[in-house]
Amino acid sequence: KQWYQRRVAITAGRVEALEKNKVEQAKLTQARWHLGMNINPADGHIFGYIVGWATGHNIGSDEKALEADFLSAEVWEEPANHIAIVRHQDGIVDAVKVWQFKYWGKSLLHRFGRKKMNPGRQIVTEGGPIQESIAEDAENLDDDPIFSVGGDLAFNWAYGNNGCRIALTEGHLSGANENDDNTHGLGNDYRCNPLDNTRIGSLWPHDVSNIQDCPLGSCNHVRLQGTDHGSGSSLMSGPVYGSYAIYVSMDAHKFPEPGQQLAQEIKV
User: Fold this and answer.
1) Sign of torsion, CA 250 78 187 225?
2) Confidence grade of residue 30 (pLDDT, cut at 50, 70, 90)
3) Which pairing describes strands 32-39 and 265-267: parallel, antiparallel, or unpaired?
4) Which bin fits 201, alpha (ψ -120 to 50), beta or left (φ > 0)?
5) pTM for this model (two decimals)
6) Residue 208 burial by CB count (10 A; 0-12/13-18/19+): exposed, middle or buried?
7) Ranges assigned E (strand) in 24-106
8) What angle do CA 253, 256, 260 make, to 5 degrees?
9) 96, 137 in Cβ contact below 8 A?
10) Residue 170's closest CA among 190, 147, 139?
11) Average pLDDT of span 66-90
12) How many degrees, rounded to 5, is the angle at CA 28 between CA 245 and CA 267?
């Protein structure tokens, strides 16, 4: 009887150890999203085309990562297979799109870095978004630079002396020599050298430009979100639709739905 009890105890111990190991392995293999950037178009800091994207230097603080402009140098260097762009209201998901990168395992620093800026103009995803989730009560969707247009992500969109860091392919993508100030998205500047990441003055950078047809020469009211922009005469401050958070992941392809609370690391 004692022999049998010892066998039962040993077996139970092994089962417990196996279950603990399974839990630990699950923790290690649990898919995660990491926050690379947050753009608040009315926090007093201008991201534009030049600042942060190509250098990957830390911007902002962990404490205000989802309140103000933020860039994590660590996450910017992480290899990634998927990217999520999230519009949020004070850290609560309002709308989200997820794409799969065309070329896997490359970091945002690689994708936005100087080597990719000349000639720039990369279509970095394919097949369109693999997830698109928008809250039923979400507002300002008619001209949102991410959620009013479809298609894939275009990075480092250099045209003339202009640049847009993130645009969508079903929006207007200006020709390489077309100096029309008319590609709209996240991280913009209407007077810079987009091929080597140098600034030409400080009048025209702006965080978020809404979808519109406003070509240079025939339109002088470019609709922006918020107040984070240069003093160029045609740049018009406007309502803030939300902050825009950029997340990356190696293994996650599904992002939490609208209504969920964001964090710098999200396990799914």
Assistant:
1) positive
2) confident
3) antiparallel
4) left
5) 0.89
6) buried
7) 32-39, 70-71, 82-89, 92-100
8) 165
9) no
10) 147
11) 98
12) 30
